[in-house]
From TrEMBL:
<feature type="active site" description="Proton acceptor">
    <location>
        <position position="176"/>
    </location>
</feature>
<feature type="binding site">
    <location>
        <begin position="119"/>
        <end position="121"/>
    </location>
    <ligand>
        <name>NAD(+)</name>
    </ligand>
</feature>
<dbReference type="InterPro" id="IPR011275">
    <property type="entry name" value="Malate_DH_type3"/>
</dbReference>
<dbReference type="GO" id="GO:0006089">
    <property type="term" value="P:lactate metabolic process"/>
</dbReference>
<feature type="domain" description="Lactate/malate dehydrogenase C-terminal">
    <location>
        <begin position="148"/>
        <end position="301"/>
    </location>
</feature>
<protein>
    <recommendedName>
        <fullName>Malate dehydrogenase</fullName>
        <ecNumber>1.1.1.37</ecNumber>
    </recommendedName>
</protein>
<dbReference type="GO" id="GO:0004459">
    <property type="term" value="F:L-lactate dehydrogenase (NAD+) activity"/>
</dbReference>
<dbReference type="InterPro" id="IPR022383">
    <property type="entry name" value="Lactate/malate_DH_C"/>
</dbReference>
<dbReference type="InterPro" id="IPR036291">
    <property type="entry name" value="NAD(P)-bd_dom_sf"/>
</dbReference>
<feature type="binding site">
    <location>
        <position position="34"/>
    </location>
    <ligand>
        <name>NAD(+)</name>
    </ligand>
</feature>
<comment type="function">
    <text>Catalyzes the reversible oxidation of malate to oxaloacetate.</text>
</comment>
<feature type="binding site">
    <location>
        <position position="121"/>
    </location>
    <ligand>
        <name>substrate</name>
    </ligand>
</feature>
<dbReference type="InterPro" id="IPR015955">
    <property type="entry name" value="Lactate_DH/Glyco_Ohase_4_C"/>
</dbReference>
<dbReference type="Pfam" id="PF00056">
    <property type="entry name" value="Ldh_1_N"/>
</dbReference>
<dbReference type="Pfam" id="PF02866">
    <property type="entry name" value="Ldh_1_C"/>
</dbReference>
<keyword id="KW-0520">NAD</keyword>
<feature type="domain" description="Lactate/malate dehydrogenase N-terminal">
    <location>
        <begin position="4"/>
        <end position="143"/>
    </location>
</feature>
Length: 308
């Protein structure tokens, strides 16, 4: 029996990108669930018809009936209202929380053994909502944030130094928003810390652009980004289905790690078949710890509003 991945909100731009990436890589059969029933069916059919071009035998179906998703190994939740220009992720809090309530109930009814990847914004708060609503252990509810934020930082570093992105690693911790914490000391080019390759001014500019990466695209396009978030989500799915033990920054429920208790926050973790298999703790400077605490406080403020 093939593995199964369901993408909730799959008729949207992010969800469709996730679904197509999984199908192209032949990672699992894909189910696209969306309240826009016929659109979900159409996008599923379009992706299915692209599979022969890619040489993929992935089966893809779509619709609004969660019964299609029964027995999924991984469920990616991309549902929610996207950001508009001038709107912060925080503005989305109440409306997207209501969506998470409905989605989580349906997902748990049909796929109680799945690992859940949450992509809806505000990311950390929505991941915590899904965690509370699902009743799942913390290893099986993961927010997609740091993979995307680190990819953006890698892009800017590679462009600044005119090197291949394959040589660049970057770590971005904290909440998925303006208070995220890029870590230049742990960001490298072919193993060389960027602190030895760039001036403090250029590093500061890269960190600032990384933190505002989503807003920059929203301003240009008129809605949230979708290619990079979709690819980042698919990378997490692949790590789980292939049990890769991949270390990436993700938003996870912390219980004392980094001095943070009982809330979601972006930190480096090991992704494998069980979901989050290890929270990796790295040494932070006093300034980095202060920035991370500030980011955690910003997330806490949001989760307090919706009581999760």
């Amino acid at each position: 029996m093939n593995r199964k991945v369901t993408v909730v909100g799959g008729a949207g731009n992010v969800g469709a990108t996730v679904a197509r990436s999984i199908a192209n890589r032949e990672l699992a059969d894909v189910v696209i669930i969306d309240i826009a029933d016929t659109k979900a069916q159409g996008i599923a059919l379009d992706i299915l018809q692209a599979c022969p071009v890619e040489g993929s035998d992935t089966r893809v179906v779509g619709g609004s009936d969660y019964a299609l998703s029964a027995g999924s190994d991984v469920v990616v939740i991309t549902s929610g209202v996207p950001r508009k220009p001038g709107m912060s992720r925080d503005d989305l809090l109440s409306v997207n929380y209501k969506i998470m309530q409905d989605v989580t109930a349906n997902v748990m009814k049909h796929s109680p053994d799945a690992i859940l990847i949450v992509v809806a914004n505000p990311l950390d708060a929505m991941a915590q909502a899904v965690y509370r609503l699902s009743g799942l252990p913390r290893e099986r509810v993961i927010g997609m944030a740091g993979v995307l934020d680190s990819a953006r930082m890698r892009t800017f570093i590679a462009a600044e130094l005119n090197v291949s992105v394959e040589n660049v690693t970057a770590f971005v911790l904290g909440g998925h928003g303006d208070t995220m914490v890029p870590l230049p000391r742990y960001s490298t080019v072919a193993g060389i810390p960027i602190t030895e390759l760039l001036t403090p001014e250029r590093i500061a500019a890269i960190c600032e652009r990384t933190a505002n990466g989503g807003a920059e695209i929203t301003k240009l396009v008129g809605t949230s980004a979708w290619y990079a978030p979709g690819q980042s989500s698919a990378r997490m799915v692949e790590a789980i289905l292939k049990d890769k033990k991949l270390i990436e920054p993700c938003s996870v429920y912390l219980q004392g790690e980094y001095g943070v208790n009982d809330q979601f926050l972006g930190v480096p973790v090991k992704l494998g078949a069980k979901g989050v298999e290890q929270v990796i703790q790295i040494t932070l400077t006093a300034d980095e710890k202060t920035a991370l605490d500030k980011s955690a406080a910003a997330v806490k403020e949001l989760t307090s509003v919706i009581g999760v």
